[in-house]
Design brief:
4-stranded mixed sheet; Translation Initiation Factor IF3; alpha+beta; about 200 residues; single chain; Ubiquitin-like (UB roll); 2 domains
């Protein structure tokens, strides 16, 4: 409610359309009578429509009304808070271990509530046939689909095949018996560990 809202003694119209706390119409009465009714109820008289003819006034708890209005405004501001978008770039010839590494970070971002934009770079002739780019995009989507969903279908933008992944809000509290989701989230990490083990074995040889 705005500070300049007319309340109680500030309402000095000859006639007003009065509504009680429960929304029941009290008819068109003088502002004096409306104020009297609000006082008898231990509440306030608030002008909720100044432009109506006659102006509309409601009997209510003005303090409570202001609190609820401010609470709604705060919630609206939170929703308008800018969402952080993390970009992850790939290529059509990216190795599987590199995909796993990048997907691991994507999962961390998504679990933190961030949006993730996968971008597959198209080279030369791939611009005319971006199927390889879409194949890579589909692969990474399959690795994060249990914790996220596409904002829109993948598409070519400039020299990239792009897709924006949004976190699934309802997966913030996963079910205890939902083992499949947990296995998917750790798949990339396990693959990385396996690759590291193979690399170490090669170094020892």
């Amino acid at each position: 409610m705005k500070e300049e809202a007319l309340i109680n003694e500030d309402i000095r119209f000859e006639q007003v359309r009065c509504i009680d706390e429960d929304g029941t119409p009290k008819g068109i009465i003088s502002s004096y009578e409306a104020l009297k009714l609000s006082r008898e109820a231990g509440l306030d008289l608030v002008c909720i429509s100044l432009t109506a003819k006659p102006p509309v006034c409601k009997i209510m708890n003005y303090g409570k009304f202001r609190y609820q209005a401010e609470k709604k405004q705060k919630e609206a501001r939170k929703k308008q808070k800018q969402i952080e978008v993390k970009e992850i770039k790939l290529s059509t010839h990216i190795a599987q271990n590199d995909i796993n590494y990048k997907v691991k970070h994507a999962i961390e971002f998504l679990n933190d509530g961030k949006h993730v934009k996968f971008k597959v770079f198209l080279r030369g002739r791939e611009m005319g046939d971006p199927s390889a780019g879409f194949a890579v995009i589909r692969k990474v989507i399959s690795l994060v689909e249990d914790i996220s969903h596409m904002d829109k279908e993948p598409k070519v933008e400039g020299r990239y095949v792009n897709v924006l992944m949004l976190p699934n809000k309802d997966l913030k509290e996963p079910k205890k018996d939902d083992k499949k989701s947990e296995e998917k989230k750790t798949e990339a990490f396990n693959s990385i560990q396996l690759m590291k083990g193979e690399d170490n074995a090669k170094d020892e040889n």
